[in-house]
Amino acid sequence: MTCKIKLIKNDEFLTSKWSGGTTTEIAIYPKDSLYSERNFIWRLSSAKVKTEESTFTSLPGINRIIMILKGKLKLEHIGHYKCILGPFEQDSFSGSWETKSYGQVTDFNLMMNEKCNGKLEPIFIKKGEEKKFILKVNEEYQKSTQAIYCVSGEAKIHTSTNEILNLHEGDAVLLTVSNSAQLDFTVYNDISNVSRLVKADIMY
Question: In terms of pTM, does the model score above 0.85?
């Protein structure tokens, strides 16, 4: 099986400052690419917006999905549409659009170039519950990654390769398969009242 599993603890992430707050890079592919050079295929990050109004960086050729983790955000895509997002609500848009935001929030971001496709999904697991997932590659692509990010609480992941991964608040795990490989895994909660997670599905 062509499969890679990587657990990333919250103290391993890189955090940088920008005019409106801070951004924490959770994962980037290829791993030696740099956001500043825009040479990535996809990138996962979480930002803390500390100003009431900010303008998004122009990212031509990049598609974006933003999900709010904490707070409420108004997005205004100039010439397109406006929307208001609360916790675990999301919006997809082009990085080439002129976008303004209003509100102080913590968000989760997936950025992708034209070589890949993806989506975000919130996952809530009550104590004693579990959810099963299957990771495989769409025939149009060569690889598929599912990233699980723990927003609050704790969770465990048990894979079909018999690995058990413990996720605490702020941790993430990357599960990747290529070609015809398939990985089954279960996310369960035996500690927290409720585990709040975000799952990113990325095909490239």
Answer: yes
